[in-house]
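Render this sequence as a predicted structure.
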Amino acid sequence: MTRFIVENDIWALFPQAKIGVVVAHGIDNHGKNVDIYEEMLREAEIEARQFLECEEFSRHPVIAVWRKAFRRFKTKKGARCSVEALLKRVKNGQHIRTINPLVDMYNAVSLRYGLPCGGEDIDTFVGDIRLALAEGHEPFIPLGGEENDPPYEGEIVYKDDVGAICRCWNWREAQRTMLTEQTKRAFLCIESIDETRNEVLYQALEELASSIRRHLGGTVKTHIVDIHHPEILITD
């Protein structure tokens, strides 16, 4: 039995937060038709232009709300919300490259809805996964890295019993738990801290779940985690 738990320290800081979760079991994440995901990303890049209208990039509400949030907990210098990083690349005329179907799908949803998305391989988890304030010694090797770079004490992280899974809430994911073409069971999340965008979150969650069902098969379930429902079951 594996649970996803958002700890009380997070609700104390962000009582309005909602996290949409997709749990997918028995999927086939092999990139059999790369053109599908390439097209998905290019279309999402076009739709993302709605978030790039402000003359000063960081002033758009979908970015500004996370800039403000990142000032409320300890972060690594220069760390930014994942959706800001994606949108900045589009603003600079860079295409988001395909990686594997699950990653491509959540990147497309992130661009289309202006919400941070991420995902992990459930079969790499040790114990429950938690969104929590770091103790400051959790092992963490970033995606594509080789050296341990643990979070700061008081930094918001996703973590399990072995170490950190994603640093600075949604800034950088771990090599250990990354989604690959061999992933059979996936945990994906979409995060919102802006109460005015709750409906957008629900739409994004349903689109991501539908896309996984259509392209990867398996059993796909959705959940909303909030202050009133702070934990869900990921595996029996």
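Summary. The first helix runs from residue 8 to 13. The helical segments are 8-13, 34-47, 61-70, 82-91, 101-113, 198-216.
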